Each structure stands twice: as C-alpha cells, then as structure tokens.
Structure to design on (137 residues):
C-alpha cells in the first residue's frame, strides 16, 4: 500500500500537479511582484509628468547643431594645442594641488564608480565570479 502511494505521488508530480504549499508560496510571490510592478509604473509616470512640467517651466530646449559644433570644435582645437606642446601638459599636472581632502573626496568617488561598475558586471553575468564557458564555435 505504501509503495502504491509513493508511485501515485510521483506520477501526480510529473503530470504537473503540485502540492498546495508550493502553489501558495508562488501565488504570494506573484501577488507581491504585481504590487511592485504597479508601484513602479505609477512612480515612473509621476516622474515623467514632473519632468515635463520642469521642462516647460524652465523653457528648456535641446541644444542646436551650432552649439554642438562650437563646443566640439573648441575641444578639438585644445586637443591639437596639447599634442603640439606636451611640456605644457606636464607643467599643468605639476601645478595641481593635492590636499588630503581632495584625495579623500575623489578616492570616494572612484570607489563608488567602481562599485557601480562591478554591480553592473554581476547583473550582466548573473553570477558573482566569471563568465560562462561556451564551447568553441
């Protein structure tokens, strides 16, 4: 009799019938997910509307092509000057004052950026260490 019960349970599992505790957990998880989805959609729409109001109120506009040209032509000219006279670059680097406060501040920024980059790598790989090894093509 016991063997018959075990067989029926296995047969029911393989047919897709699951225990109530698993389906209850899954439905609770699905309910929480739907609640988070609704909240994120709501706050996304609120943020978009707020951004639109700020855009209109501040009379913001995208930059014109003339502005882009001016900025990038100026950068190009500065780059050419720097390439022609590398000693000027070295002298400007030597004139930078490195105080303890600046080193701590910029070191903190660097650590934060490194942490965000590492977090993105972990999310992209979907594991903490290494990439999947695929067979050669």
């Amino acid at each position: 009799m016991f063997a018959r019960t075990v067989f029926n349970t296995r047969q029911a599992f393989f047919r897709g019938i699951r225990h109530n505790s698993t389906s209850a957990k899954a439905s609770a998880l699905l309910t929480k997910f739907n609640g988070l989805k609704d909240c994120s959609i709501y706050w996304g729409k609120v943020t978009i509307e707020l951004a639109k109001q700020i855009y209109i109120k501040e009379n913001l506009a995208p930059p014109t092509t003339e502005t882009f040209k001016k900025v990038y032509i100026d950068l190009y000219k500065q780059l050419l000057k720097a390439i022609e006279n590398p000693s000027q670059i070295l002298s400007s680097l030597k004139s930078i004052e490195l105080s303890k406060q600046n080193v701590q501040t910029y070191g903190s920024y660097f650590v934060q950026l490194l942490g965000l980059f590492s977090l993105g790598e972990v999310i992209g790989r979907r594991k903490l260490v290494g990439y999947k090894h695929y067979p050669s093509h």
